[in-house]
Write a structure and sequence with these properties.
8 helices, five-stranded parallel beta sheet, Rossmann fold
């Protein structure tokens, strides 16, 4: 399994600008799950990207090298892990803006996994559900598995280690799921099947009315 997936490349986008961000720690753990499946990974830390506010014009990024870099890095990946803190019951504005600067070229037909952290006990259910809707709008395949760490400040230490193995397992499983499904979608066998399916003869019974 690991050797078969060694050609896969996944990126994890950190939707937080905080130094010592728990979101960053969670995304790193999820990426380790993908690496265990043989995928190569890249952490995209939005603190290191100078991005404009999206104004609805897709071409606006031409004057922003970091925005073009972000697009290239995501476009080069077969799978994406999105990480967010919970801000007022939804995902972060910096992540929304980054996603708004991209589109189908970066996400269409790709596998996406979701992870989140929160300061409170309620977790990030609404934030991740909102991200799931955005993924569908971008024509991405969002895996059912998702992971969240509530009250993150109690569970992460300064080095990004978790005190609860169940949280670690869930985060890594998101990375593994993204790698598994990305492999299925990009394998030669699946591509051959899709080509046959798309070129299949029309239904001999005609259209149902």
């Amino acid at each position: 399994m690991q050797e078969r997936q060694s050609h896969l490349h996944l990126v994890g986008i950190v939707g937080s600008l905080r130094s010592g961000s728990y979101t960053r720690m969670a995304v790193k753990i999820a990426l380790r799950g993908a690496e265990a499946m043989g995928a190569t990974t890249r952490l995209i830390d939005l603190r290191n990207y100078e991005l404009p506010f999206c104004d609805g014009e897709h071409a606006q990024v031409e004057g922003y090298p970091d925005a073009l870099r972000l697009r290239r890095e995501v476009a080069a990946a077969q799978g994406v892990i999105l990480g967010t803190p919970d801000y007022h019951g939804s995902f972060s504005g910096v992540l929304k803006n980054a996603l708004d600067l991209m589109g189908f070229d970066e996400f269409g037909g790709k596998v996406v996994g979701l992870v989140g952290v929160s300061g409170g006990a309620m977790g990030t259910v609404n934030a991740l559900n909102d991200l799931r809707k955005v993924g569908r709008s971008l024509h991405a395949w969002v895996v059912p598995q998702q992971a969240a760490v509530p009250q993150a400040g109690r569970h992460f230490d300064a080095d990004g280690r978790l005190d609860d193995p169940d949280y670690e397992k869930r985060l890594q499983e998101v990375g593994r799921e993204v790698a598994r499904f990305a492999y299925l979608l990009t394998s030669k066998e699946m591509q051959a099947f899709l080509e046959i399916w798309e070129n299949a003869m029309p239904n001999p019974g005609g259209e149902h009315r």
